[in-house]
């Protein structure tokens, strides 16, 4: 896909042409479907792969399909039909897990997934879901894990949990095998037991207001089954914080931002809701949420309530400057690695030691995937176009590729950051601290 640029009130977004067309088509006030109709078949293939990876396929499927190639229309119809069937598995999996947790005396709330319906997505059948995310109080995590093991789930030790806010992923794969279908109705769901809603040990700062989310949890019902979830105001807060977390960790945000934009657009004139939000969430939490609100408006053109506009306008000057200059870097990172998030993350930190830790962690990564893990094989296959390499050679290729990509991104990040902040010398002092510390 050729690089393409989208302009808005922030620095232009440079992404492949097909991705730019998708974002324009999903715009909430002025959708432009015509750009999608102009794509070539090979661009459609790349876009569908991008959407599968970025959880946007079902959003694409809800758009008018005039001008879409017939094979794309059929593919999207199949995905929607498969996911509707898959939701039956989602419900059955949750019921079984909830019963096991209840028997063990473990309280929980469901986060993300089907809880986003109907405020963020019209129907849970129109949202891809590969796992169940359950938050349990930290002291109950062990009991929850044992309860799930009692119904056949086993912890996955093949992935890294260094920056995770959940316990080891619980799987129960049975005889199922991957069939190149992200919406396979028979694909088992994994379960992630979250021990926090905001990970202070990873972000290096605390959001105190989130500690009260648990006390405001509520019972809800969807499609004939009940579950405990966060309150509507706190569900919004958690989604916004999850977007901020993913920005900091270079994880995907586009589908989360789109769902947030839908909510903000629908609730733009709901003064009662936003008055409750303003009273419930303190200024610190609102400033974190405002970052995500800014992304939603910039990417998808949603209408905003005055309370939301005020929160964005109340952001510290440095953060507003970063958003205007670097906000789109988090989207561009899906096709070209960058670490521009570093300067936003730094703006939230007060402690010099925390800033130093973040600089080291970001610019000189020390965590690597284990040998024979899917990530190692994927990187090796992509770099060598071969799946026949010995595991040790695969791992060597992975390490070289990781070192090269991170080195280039780190150098580029320092250069771009220096160019941005040189006039005030603030960044220069931070870099000096980092360089001095690196000699110890």
Automatic annotation (TrEMBL):
It comes from the Bacteria. Keywords: Transferase. The keyword Transferase applies. InterPro entries: NTP_transf_5. Pfam families: NTP_transf_5 (PF14907). One of its GO terms (molecular function) is transferase activity. This is Putative nucleotidyltransferase-like protein.
């Amino acid at each position: 896909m050729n690089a393409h640029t989208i302009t808005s009130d922030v620095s232009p977004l440079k992404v492949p042409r097909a991705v730019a067309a998708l974002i324009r088509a999903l715009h909430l006030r002025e959708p432009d479907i015509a750009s999608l109709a102009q794509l070539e078949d090979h661009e459609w293939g790349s876009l569908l792969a991008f959407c599968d990876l970025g959880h946007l396929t079902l959003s694409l499927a809800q758009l008018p399909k005039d001008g879409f190639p017939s094979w794309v229309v059929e593919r999207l119809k199949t995905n929607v039909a498969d996911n509707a069937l898959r939701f039956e598995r989602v419900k059955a999996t949750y019921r079984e897990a909830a019963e096991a947790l209840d028997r063990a005396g473990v309280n929980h709330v469901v986060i993300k997934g089907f809880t986003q319906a109907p405020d963020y997505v019209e129907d849970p059948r129109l949202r891809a879901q590969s796992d169940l995310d359950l938050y349990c109080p930290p002291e109950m995590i062990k009991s929850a894990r044992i309860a799930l093991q009692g119904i056949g789930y086993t912890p996955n030790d093949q992935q890294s949990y260094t920056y995770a806010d959940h316990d080891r992923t619980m799987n129960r794969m049975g005889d199922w095998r991957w069939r190149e279908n992200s919406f396979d109705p028979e694909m088992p769901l994994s379960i992630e037991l979250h021990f926090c809603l905001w990970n202070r040990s990873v972000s290096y700062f605390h959001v105190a207001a989130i500690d009260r989310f648990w006390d405001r949890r509520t019972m809800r019902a969807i499609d004939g089954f009940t579950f405990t979830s966060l309150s509507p105001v706190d569900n919004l807060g958690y989604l916004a914080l999850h977007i901020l977390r993913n920005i900091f960790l270079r994880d995907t945000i586009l589908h989360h931002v789109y769902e947030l934009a839908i909510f903000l657009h629908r609730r733009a004139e709901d003064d009662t809701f936003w008055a409750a939000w303003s009273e419930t969430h303190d200024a610190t939490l609102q400033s974190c949420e405002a970052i995500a609100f800014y992304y939603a408006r910039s990417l998808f053109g949603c209408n905003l309530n005055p309370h939301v506009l005020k929160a964005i306008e109340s952001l510290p000057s440095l953060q507003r400057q970063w958003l205007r200059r670097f906000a789109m870097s988090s989207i561009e990172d899906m096709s070209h690695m960058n670490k521009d998030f570093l300067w936003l993350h730094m703006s939230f930190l007060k402690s010099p030691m925390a800033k130093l830790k973040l600089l080291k962690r970001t610019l000189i990564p020390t965590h690597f995937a284990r040998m024979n893990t899917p990530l190692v094989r994927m990187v090796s296959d992509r770099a060598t176009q071969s799946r026949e390499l010995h595991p040790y050679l695969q791992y060597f290729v992975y390490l070289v590729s990781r070192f090269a990509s991170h080195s280039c991104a780190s150098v580029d990040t320092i250069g771009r950051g220096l160019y941005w902040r040189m006039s005030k010398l603030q960044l220069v002092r931070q870099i000096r601290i980092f360089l001095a510390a690196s000699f110890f």
